[in-house]
Amino acid sequence: VLITGATGFLGRHLIPRLVFSHSVRCLVRKSSDISSLERKNVQIFYGDLTDQESLVQATQGVDVVIHMAAACRQELRENMSEVNVEGTRRLVNACKAQKVSKLIYLSSVAVLFEGDLQNDEYCYTKRIAEEIVMESGMPVIVLRPSAIYPEKGGFTVPVKIARYFPILPLPVSILEKKLQQPVAVENVIEVILVALNTDKLKVNKPYFVVGPNTQTISELLDKTTVYPFKPLKIKVPDFILKGLASLGVPIDLGHLKKRQRIYNFDIAESVKDFDYNPLDISVAIHGGKGRDLY
């Protein structure tokens, strides 16, 4: 198995689950921190998605490729096309040249968000990369995760802290912001493992790998509070934030710039083909493993 993006967030969770049953080759750049990959059955292969020859060599003798690498942060905007689009194209060509039997591609629900997010370049390049993969002519399993949260840390931390406060003064835009079916990293890893170990899945068709529901921050705070009553939420008008920002207070106003469009990601195919049972984020914040809170 060849893995790209092995030193990233998903890779650090996936590698420990793979090394017990698979020989793993990780494509990494020479500048990468590989301390998380120093395990038995893990082979480090130095290369880059911008280097076609390194990809041809990396895929030699490989049966399955799991492609997770991507430029996603806004500060990498100038590199997104080269890495996400052309890098994926090079990898697909290498897979075909080396007769790789299956490519598992980690796409994103962001392919549907173009025009709806600040980071539109990422959405656009992921959409084009997904098209390249699905039109490659080789067996491909495309997975579209939503925002992924870990068991500890990540964007759930503010809610985990706020649940201990009975009174919460928060901006209206924050309270009304909807988390669109966020998914636990464990659920994503489970789906990747099923995709790796079976040949019965639908190829060249995207699967949504997302959480079971969409809820606002306000609703999430109500569900996860440690108190037997809902917290008192004091809505701070957004114009106050804008005023503070104009005075030089370091406040991120990105969430105010665009009206949030709500999507409904259908997980029926994932439930059917992967026996997929995603964890509700409110349960995860409580530290539970079941799907339902009540």
Could you walk me through the main structural features you see in this protein, from its secondary elements to its overall organization?
It is a single chain. It contains eleven helices and 13 strands. With 294 residues, it is an alpha/beta fold. The strands form four sheets. The chain has a seven-stranded parallel beta sheet, with helices on both faces. A two-stranded parallel ribbon has the order 7-10. Helix 1 (9-18) packs across helix 7 (185-197) and helix 2 (52-58) packs across helix 3. It starts with a strand and ends in an 8-residue tail after the last helix.
Biggest sheet descriptor: 7 strands, parallel
Number of strands: 13
Continuous helix count: 11
The poorly predicted ranges are: 290-294
Strand order of the largest sheet: 3-2-1-4-5-6-11
Compute the separation of the termini in Å.
41 Å
Strand content: 15-25%
Nearest-integer average pLDDT: 87
Q: What is the radius of gyration computed over CA atoms, rounded to a whole number of angstroms?
A: 21 Å
